[in-house]
Write a structure and sequence with these properties.
Radius of gyration: 28 Å
Helix content: under 10%
Order of helices and strands: HEEEEEEEEEEHEEE
Strand content: 25-35%
Shape: elongated
Number of strands: 13
Structural class: mainly beta
Largest sheet: 7 strands, antiparallel
Length: about 300
């Protein structure tokens, strides 16, 4: 009998980020809609202030407001208008809003409803606001390529890392950051961006006397073995055939007189949520630490 060959089943695309990162990452929203739907109670409120997955809470809407059993809500916590020195855009970028988790309504009364915490990204509190559950695309992972540490600019949209989740100033792999590129800059979910900074920048501390070592001094050698009076800390002399106590070169002088040097790529991001003026992104690769204020560019 003829042999039947079945083609291999197509594999589902591998997601580039985890589901928790997509729905727990937060965002910087330009103009939040007025909203008073919120958590107002809990079944153990006499001794409990924080609510997580599996806990029961009360919300301030019921059948008369159109709530129905089985309905789900996203829980958010606006933290206030966000401004930063790290952007060239004028004015506030929007309201920084944390995503706290998700509720599922289990029992509906006239003007209140009982709900169970179905997912918790953080502890829920009284006053946290409820919104419809967002429908978000999860970008597919692309094949890995070597991270070019000194890649040339792509010429596409450029911005900066303006905020990191949970107050971090040096995020790393799989952590969330916010950038000042949004819908107005024509970026999209799934876009990859290079994170870079000019060569020589990014140092957290600076010392005024970094290059104070002398080129030569009698105290550098021992009295017995006379190993030499030359320092192993000082830069070279400006006059290579001059006196050993002559003037040394300085790092700032070398940096100011050198030809243009390439930028340094320190990591990579993927966009998972786009707002009007900003986007939420996840760090997919790092070559070293990423800082608030680092530049980003669409690949």
């Amino acid at each position: 009998p003829p042999v039947t060959v079945k083609p291999p089943a197509e594999r589902a695309p591998v997601p580039a980020v985890h589901d928790a990162e997509v729905y727990c990452s937060g965002f910087i929203e330009l103009a939040p809609a007025p909203n008073n739907l919120q958590i107002v109670g809990g079944d153990q409120e006499q001794e409990q202030r924080h609510y997580v997955a599996g806990d029961t809470v009360i919300i301030n809407s019921g059948a008369q407001q159109g709530v129905r059993a089985g309905q789900e809500f996203a829980v958010v916590r606006p933290r206030g208008r966000f401004k930063t020195e790290w952007t060239a855009k004028r004015g506030a970028l929007g309201v920084y809003t944390q995503e706290i988790g998700r509720l599922r309504v289990t029992d509906v009364k006239d003007n209140v409803s009982v709900a169970v915490v179905a997912r918790s990204c953080d502890s829920m509190l009284f006053g946290d606001l409820l919104r419809p559950v967002p429908q978000r695309a999860v970008p597919a992972k692309r094949p890995e390529a070597v991270l070019d540490r000194f890649s040339n600019p792509s010429g596409k949209q450029r911005g900066r890392v303006v905020l990191n989740s949970e107050g971090r100033e040096s995020p790393t792999l799989n952590q969330v950051v916010y950038i000042d590129l949004g819908a107005e800059d024509n970026v999209h979910v799934g876009d990859y961006l290079s994170v870079y900074r000019p060569l020589g920048t990014g140092k957290l501390t600076r010392f005024r006397d970094e290059e104070m070592a002398q080129n030569t001094r009698r105290g550098f050698e021992s009295e017995r073995f006379k190993g030499g009076t030359f320092s192993n800390q000082a830069p070279r002399l400006k006059k290579q055939d001059g006196s050993s106590s002559g003037e040394t070169v300085k790092t700032p002088e070398i940096q100011e007189s050198r030809p243009p040097v390439p930028r340094k790529v320190v990591g990579e991001l993927i966009i998972i949520n786009v707002q009007a003026r900003t986007a939420t992104a996840v760090v997919t690769r790092v070559a070293q630490e990423i800082h608030t204020g680092d530049f980003v560019e669409v690949q």
